Amino acid sequence: MGPQTKRVAPVLKQPKDIEEVINSYLTPNSKLAILLDYDGTLAPIAANPNITSMTVEVEKALHKITSNPKVFAAVISGRGIVDVQNKVGIKNITYGGNHGIEIQNPDGSRKDYELPAEIQSNYTELVHDLRRQLAKNGAWVEDKRVSLTYHYRDTPADKIENQRLEAIRIIESHGFRANQAHFAIEAKPPVNWNKGEATKFILEQKFGKNYANEGNLKIVFAGDDTTDEDAMRVLQGIGRTFRIASDPKMETYADYRLPEQQLMTPLLQYIANIYKD
Hints:
By secondary structure, this protein is α/β, with parallel strands linked by helices. 35% of the residues lie in helices and 21% in strands. The strands form 3 sheets. The chain has an 8-stranded mixed sheet, sandwiched between helices.
């Protein structure tokens, strides 16, 4: 398989399948960079993003992994950066918010992708128009300062399609990109910055521009959404990436598919077991 190609990835249905992949890739002596999405990956998707949380098992495994000095960890989310920091609540992690437009390291240093004034102005108008026209029938707009999510999980089934299509039209009329998510449409600014660019920046900042050829560095990425594919694409051939998706025919840049979010628990537990102090 050539670089940067999509395919139907091998599925890991059982914890033992995951254990085999992890144990054949990682050793206690190798440095590890682990990059993770939050919603639908570390935490199950919920009807309202305010009520999501990691399970005790996932939180415990993540604490173990991030406490090992050989491990560098990052969480890159579509949420605003303060929101995802509060949700995960672990200090020695690099956080990326708004799909990596905002990045903050454990020492407090930041890298924010500066949006041009025109885009910021268009964004303000976009939030206003969406709320005025489409915050109805259980749907609502989540304002994340530089990007937004239009949620319609609670909208009656017979009204979803019209509202979804109208949301896409409004988003695109303001020059923003509309991305399909889980019962939601994400509006992203029209800039060449995404989870893939953020992943490269974070890894280069930590390990240098030649991180892909550093023999002792292992890279793991896991995510569940179309926005995570950008990171899986840039890591193809240089790490182990996992796409959480139930569709057996879905094509992905990831190395493996996990059919359900609950399989993140054994994935992280096996990694924690390798990097236990």
